[in-house]
Amino acid sequence: MLGRQKMPEQDATVRRANFNEVALGFTREQAVEEAKRCLECKKPKCIEGCPVEVRIPDFVKYVSIGDFDSAIKEIKSVNALPAICGRVCPQESQCEALCILGKKGGPVSIGRLERFVSDYERKLEAEIPKKPGPTGKKVAVVGSGPAGLTAAADLARMGHSVTIFEALHAAGGVLTYGIPEFRLPKDIVQAEVEYVKKLGVTLLLDSVIGKIDTVDELLLDFDAVFLGTGAGLPMFLNIDGENLNGVYSANEFLTRVNLMKSYRFPDYDTPIKKGKRVIVVGGGNVAMDSARCALRLGADEVTIVYRRGEEEMPARAEEIEHAKEEGIEFRLLTNPVRLNGDAKNWVTDIECINMYLCEPDESGRCRPMPLAGSEHKIEADVVIIAIGTSPNPLVPKTTSGLEISKHGTIIAKGNGETTKKGVFAGGDAVTGSATVISAMGAGKIAARAIDEYLRTK
Amino acid sequence: MDINAPRIARKAQPGQFVILRIDETGERIPLTIADFDREKGTITMIFQAIGKTTTQLSALEGNELMDFIGPLGNPAHIENEGTVILVGGGVGVAPVFPQARAFKESGNKVISIIGARSANLLLWEDRMREVSDELYITTDDGSKGHHGFVTDIVKKILENGTKVDRVIAIGPPVMMRAVAGVTKPFNVKTIVSLNSIMVDGTGMCGACRVLVGNETKFACVDGPEFDAHLVDFTLLMNRLAIYQPEEKLAFEKYKCEREGCKC
Q1: Confidence class of residue A95 from pLDDT cuts 50, 70 and 90?
Q2: A 9-48 residues with CB below 8 A of B?
Q3: A 279-318 residues with CB below 8 A of B?
Q4: Best interface-test mutation with A: which of B3, B204, B231 has the largest number of A CBs within 10 A?
Q5: Do A233 and B206 touch (CB under 8 A)?
Q6: How far apart are CA B89 and CA B154, in angstroms?
Q7: What is the spatial distance between Cα A234 and Cα A287, in angstroms, rounded to a whole number?
Q8: How far apart, in whole angstroms, are the C-alpha atoms of residue A305 and residue A382?
């Protein structure tokens, strides 16, 4: 059996200085060859690994015979955002992890094929599927991130009238403000948003629910509400010096770079501190994104500081690999204890202590413990804290009868139903920081539950 | 500047702010709401043209903004306290006005102190007079009213033994810090509105963090109003200076492009 096709990407020495997409995508020939590797299992395992239930073998089959139009139609009948999924899903732990070929030559590159056919389609005119007649029911979707877009697309396809309320001036949520251009180009996100609009969804930007309207007010106009408000307030380490100038939350750093395009300052007005020696604290995808953005802004040295080992890093293996190739340094088993600054409040260095791992904790990962006497300093002029977020309080604070957990996440059943009648929720607002695809899965499940609720109402 | 924004005007409360963006390449800036008219559907903002965005803004008619978002932040806490002193410095007089009006409507005795560097920079004297039981004016150069600072008047009133139940101060951070310093020994609850740097303004980015009572708070969702006696003003001022070089660069570039130069 032949091995996997290798997807072309920008050379690491070139890409570390630009914001263009790292991966370049399969050629037509590569896509067909890769698709031909599929064994067409009678009981395909891969589908079980897909949170949005894409019928993978069906679309892969179409690719293998060069019928890309049918392939993308097949995917889009269940997933409205394939160009995004093909780029940011952790396929290695989902569909591809279950592929039988994993044991022989490597799994079929399902994600890269999905990416290929969605890119193929974007160059043409996307076909809008037929919808059932209007149901006369109205649904408000709060937030236009992966959960909201997926729920909105599915509900529109079921014939409901859907309006999305987005707080920011651009749609996409984390896809727009969080994930950098070089991993997920913004024109691709906007193309997917346009597709959702073409399904009949109304998109209202600059509309902060909880402020301009409360959820209770929305329920006067709409038959149901879906909350996909995402992760919110950035978490900090709660150590001295975190309010020094030059210390960013990853949310702020990435929002400035991605949403506000500060990497193009002063052509764009929003400034950013570029930093010569940048330290990123954390080990997830957001930490990798922050580090790689800092490098592209022109830092001489970018170091990731993470309190556990590489095995324990929540980031995708591919992201860690890309970061290393680009020259980002990793200081593992290292934990910050304080940040020091100068007289004008600018950060100068970060004091760390080495850690060692002992028995696994409740997260299943080994608990890091400080190694006495290993304190040391690392110089830095920009520090980015990427250790997660807690949910945004605006909606829970202003919605009667909507219960939240002690962590501030919205309490919802498996189908997205919250404690408030007619209100459903999904994505990071419910689970805390997780992945794009799990939020999309939650949006899909909630759309089904909302449909059922509206039909029996 | 009046902005036609009926949906925001319908909900706006004293103490809240808006975020605006002028054009595609523009930054998002927060401005405290100076007044709102629910019937006309307008939001009024007063600002000083000191950098690129505010200078650009001052040249606009009003309704060609790309984005106008709000009302954000928590409304001011307005109740019948008894006697309330409202202090407004510079453009801070404008956001003080709707609070003065609301405190007056709630049955308080309203003592207002408004200050500016010079008489020609003094804002909204007539409006403030209308909603105040007593109005004091101060100018740094003595061109109108008391020659000195707003804090001189606050101190005098407190030293005279007037029972004051609450002080609201909005203006430059140095002024707010000075007011907090004056009222602290008298133990009068003092509220300030913090104008920290923001990006999204909805509790997502954490740029606006301030230290209040030794705890990190986000001005956009926890504020913008805080207990002045607990605010770390030095940190606020340090953080406001983060982008000074970039702000200067952007402003210079803007002036060059607008006026034409050989740089």
Answers
A1: very high
A2: none
A3: none
A4: B204
A5: yes
A6: 13
A7: 13
A8: 13
Q: Judge whether residue A1 has pLDDT over 70.
A: no
Question: The tokens 């000191």 sit on which residue?
Answer: B50
Inter-chain contact B204–A255, Cβ cutoff 8 Å? Answer: yes
Q: What mean pLDDT do residues A354-367 have? A: 81
Residue A46: what are its φ and ψ, rounded to 5°? -55, -40
Beta bridge partners of B88: B114, B170
Contact A394 B221 (CB under 8 A): yes
Per-residue model confidence (pLDDT) at position B154: 97
- CA-based angle A340:A341:A344, to the nearest 5? 165
Helix (H) or strand (E) segment spanning residue B159: helix B150-159
Q: Please report, for residues B122, B252, B257, the alpha-carbon distance to residue B260 in angstroms, rounded to integers and kept in the order given.
A: 33, 11, 5
> DSSP 3-state assignment of B109?
strand
The predicted pLDDT at position A360 comes to: 78
Backbone angles phi, psi at A9, to 5 degrees: -140, 165
Percent of chain B with pLDDT strictly greater than 70: 98
The answer to whether the beta carbons of residues A384 and A399 sit under 8 Å apart is no
Which residue type sits at A189? V
Q: Are residues B69 and A260, on separate chains, in Cβ contact within 8 Å?
A: no
* Each residue's pLDDT tens digit, A74-83: 999 999 999 9
Amino acid at residue number A241: G
| A206 near B CB under 8 A | yes
Q: Report how far residue A316's alpha carbon sits from residue A23's, in angstroms, rounded to the nearest whole number.
A: 15
Sign of the C-alpha dihedral computed for residues A392, A396, A402 and A404 taken in this order = positive
What is the arrangement of strands in the sheet containing B2-4, beginning at the earlier edge strand? B2-4, B42-44, B35-37
| Residue A234 forms contact with B (CB below 8 Å) | yes
pLDDT tier at B201 (50, 70, 90 boundaries)?
very high
How far apart CA B113 and CA B100 sit, in angstroms, is 11
- pTM, entire model: 0.94
Is cis: bond before A360, omega within 30 of 0? no
CA distances from B118 to A326, B86, B95, B149, B174 (A): 56, 19, 19, 11, 17
Q: How far apart are CA A258 and CA A181, in angstroms?
A: 7
- A 63-102 residues inside an 8 A Cβ radius of B: none
CB contacts, 8 Å: A260 with chain B: 27-28, 199
Strand A423-425 with A224-227, pairing: parallel
pLDDT tens digit string along A206-226? 999 999 999 999 999 999 999
Q: What angle do CA A134, A167, A426 make, to 5 degrees?
A: 60
Average pLDDT for residues A304-320, to the nearest whole number? 93
- Give the integer Cα–Cα distance in Å for A357 and B162: 63
In the block, which residue shows the tokens 């609070």? B99
Q: Taking residues B177-204, what's their average pLDDT?
A: 96
Asked whether the beta carbons of A38 and A60 are under 8 A apart, the reply is: yes
